[in-house]
């Protein structure tokens, strides 16, 4: 009897850890793909991870923006990997102005248990706020 209880406990903990590991791996992959999309100017691709599609922005709006760097300066994981807040510093070149600007982007990422995906809550980085 004790062996059965012990085995069930070990399996439960093991499956829980696997679930957390999968969420973390999925989170890492999603955040990496989002970063690459922003860095390479693929804003349409970046928008596919947004939770609220009403935040959609015409990618052409950013045609004069060339991202130089994208650095995560803070990342905080909440609960059982169901929410991640991160602060990202983005340096970019604005072609029309000929200047390098810096933008600090606050991001909240939420895990959708039903769909098994990570989604960005909020809009793409607000480059316009840094230009003016």
Textual characterization of the structure:
The structure is a single chain. Strands 1-2-3-4 form a 4-stranded antiparallel beta sheet. The chain is elongated. It has one domain: Roll (Nuclear Transport Factor 2, Chain: A). The chain starts with a helix and ends with a helix. The chain has about 130 residues and is an alpha+beta fold. The chain is built from 3 helices and 4 strands; from the N terminus they run ααββββα.
List the SSEs and their pairings.
Blueprint: H1 2-39, H2 43-46, E1 65-78, E2 83-94, E3 99-112, E4 117-121, H3 127-131
Antiparallel strand pairs: 1-2, 2-3, 3-4
The CATH architecture assignment turns out to be: Roll
Please mark out the parts with pLDDT under 50 across 5 or more consecutive residues, or reply none. 3-17
What oligomeric state best describes the polypeptide chains here?
Answer: single chain
Query: Can you write the helix and strand succession as a string?
Result: HHEEEEH
Largest sheet: 4 strands, antiparallel
How many beta strands in the DSSP annotation?
4
Could you estimate the helical fraction of the residues in percent? 25-40%
Roughly how many Å is the radius of gyration?
19 Å
Strand order of the largest sheet: 1-2-3-4
Structural class: alpha+beta
CATH level-3 fold name: Nuclear Transport Factor 2, Chain: A
What overall geometry do the principal axes of the alpha carbons give? elongated
State the domain count: 1
By CATH reckoning, the class would read: Alpha Beta
């Amino acid at each position: 009897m004790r062996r059965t209880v012990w085995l069930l406990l070990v399996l439960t903990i093991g499956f829980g850890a696997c679930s957390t590991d999968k969420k973390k791996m999925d989170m890492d992959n999603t955040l990496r793909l989002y970063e690459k999309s922003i860095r390479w100017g693929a804003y349409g691709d970046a928008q596919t991870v947004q939770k609220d599609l009403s935040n959609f922005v015409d990618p052409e709006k950013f045609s004069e923006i060339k991202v130089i760097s994208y650095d995560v300066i803070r990342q905080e994981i909440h609960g059982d990997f169901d929410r991640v807040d991160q602060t990202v510093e983005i340096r970019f070149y604005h072609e029309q102005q000929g200047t390098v600007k810096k933008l600090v982007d606050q991001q909240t990422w939420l895990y959708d248990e039903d769909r098994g995906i990570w989604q960005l809550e909020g809009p793409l980085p607000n480059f316009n706020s840094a230009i003016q």
